[in-house]
Amino acid sequence: MTGKPDSKVEIAKRHGRHLRGTIAETLASEATHFGHDDTALLKFHGTYQQDDRDARRALEAARLEKAYSFMVRVAIPAGAITGEQYLDLERIADEHANGTLRVTTRQGFQFHGVLKGDLKPAIAGINRSLLTTISACGDVQRNVMGCAAPLGDADHAAVRQVAEALALELRPATRAYYEIWLDGEQQVSTEAEEPFYQDRYLPRKFKTAVGLSTDNCVDIWSQDVGLLAIVRDGRIEGFNLLVGGGLGMTHNKGDTTARLAEPLGFVATEHGVEAVRLVAAIFRDHGNRSDRRHARLKYLLAEWGTTRFREEFRRRASFSLGPAVDLPALPFHDHLGAHRQRDGRWFYGVFVQSGRIVDTEGHALKTALHEIVTRLRPGVSLTAQQNLLLTDLDADGVETVERILGAHRVTLPARLSAVRRFSMACPALPTCGLAVAESERAIPAILDRFEAELEALGLRDAPLTLRMTGCPNGCARPYTADLAFVGRSLGLYNVYLGGGLAGDRLVDLYRADVPTEELLETVRPLLARWAAEREGAEGLGDFYQRLMGLRARRTTVTGRELPTVDLIPLEVSR
């Protein structure tokens, strides 16, 4: 608590009658968009109001209103759906959105280009498919992440079960969602309607994940709260409880930070869900509600310190919090290609560039997936790297998947370069209201250039995570990557270096305000040194850290940093 006045969003939540506002009235009207307070509440229902930013200037010159549309996000705990649900979502995208599906970095699906008149049919259709959009956005627990790989062993199955239980435990209880989108009977808003979230919900978004000590595919250190399952001999012994991660910050604001989560302690398996609920309750009661730039849990941790936070947790807990288990660096798997499940069947991971399932010239991914799912009826799982797993296949099914992908010119995982395979990008322009630069539309050409350069250097298969975002809010997790380009303004990016696949350290600002066309040139000398001097399978981030003197693992990066480019000699030493 700061003692300062609540932000406008806090006031909108408090007066919103448990997320009702005037959403239903505006939906029924001829208006093309919603007012400020309702747009704040709509996020809790799983949708953001956006507009076509490419068209803004022309529309403004013609004195016309913005070209409004909506992004709708589906919350899918641990990313697992059925083939039938996938086909339902594909149909909704065709009928009510722009015809594409986008896998999110939190294992959900997004629809883009939904017009106001299609908003209710789209959300109702999602619910008819036994999925939901509630809590996919907003100041609540977001989609709960968990390893998407259906390996069938006890630890992976347990992770999925805990993720699903956690999603249910902290899902908003308000009936507003059912009243507005599913024509449920209207009820009077009362305090009893939201026993946990009350009338103000959380101060800010609350991102959670259930991870494994054998695979950090969910980027556990980037979460507000992580349950890191300690796996020994194929069984989960309990969870390291990690708190205070979060990758959003603001350019030139040194008091805003990207931060990795830190261990709070160890909890028994049966107390994992309650432990996350307790952390959320502390955040609810003590988080900053006056300044949304400082409203994430990580700022409360920074203000209080871990010791005070741990004491408050123990004061509220009915179970013991032990010391966290020391662990080596966590391995990482992207689960692409063919893998055997414990039941003898197979799953197959398909690479999806920037998560966008769409047909483009010479690359008909959407058509290929439709044909595969229609013919084979596999399960579908979404990964934190924006890729898609086709599950429960027989051996012939794997061959069929590869044949159909090949027929539609979809690159098989074995043929991907490392830089493309491990790349991610946020949507950015023209839809995201926060974007200041390109990302998804720019990264294909950037990857083409990097692929050619790395091929020439003999680094085609060298581990390299390249991530790009159109603003500093970190949606594609750039601050844990080997190499990241973060938008500063149209055509200009900050270049960051020093993370890696493990996701357990943050980057340095390498150079600021680099034009798009100079991104490769900026790091070309460093790539040449990496090619000449790398040790074994050393990744670019590891190599950079070695050049910088193998410093302690960096866990915080601010919005105001000094570039390191002049600290590294770029001449090849051998």
What is this structure, in a nutshell?
With 574 residues, the protein is an alpha+beta fold.
Structural summary, described in words:
The protein has 574 residues and is an alpha+beta fold. It has three domains: 8-182 and 203-316, Sulfite Reductase Hemoprotein, domain 1, CATH 3.30.413.10; 337-411, Sulfite Reductase Hemoprotein,Domain 2 (Sulfite Reductase Hemoprotein, domain 2, Alpha-Beta Complex), CATH 3.90.480.10; 422-567, 2-Layer Sandwich (Sulfite Reductase Hemoprotein, domain 1), CATH 3.30.413.10. It contains 17 helices and 24 strands. The protein is globular and about 70 Å long. The termini are far apart.
Overall domain count: 3
CATH superfamily of the largest domain: Sulfite Reductase Hemoprotein, domain 1
Helix count equals: 17
Beta strands, count:
24
Task: For the record, give the distance between the C-alpha atoms at the N and C termini, rounded to a whole number.
Answer: 56 Å
Largest sheet: 5 strands, antiparallel
Give the fraction of residues assigned to helices: 25-40%
Sheet-strand content, in percent, reads: 15-25%
CATH architecture of the largest domain: 2-Layer Sandwich
Q: What do the pLDDT scores average to? A: 96
Taking pLDDT < 50 over at least 5 consecutive residues as the criterion, the unreliable ranges are none
**Strand line-up of the largest beta sheet:** 1-2-5-4-14
Radius of gyration: 23 Å
Give the helix/strand class.
alpha+beta
Shape: globular
Name the CATH class of the largest domain. Alpha Beta
CATH topology of the largest domain: Sulfite Reductase Hemoprotein, domain 1
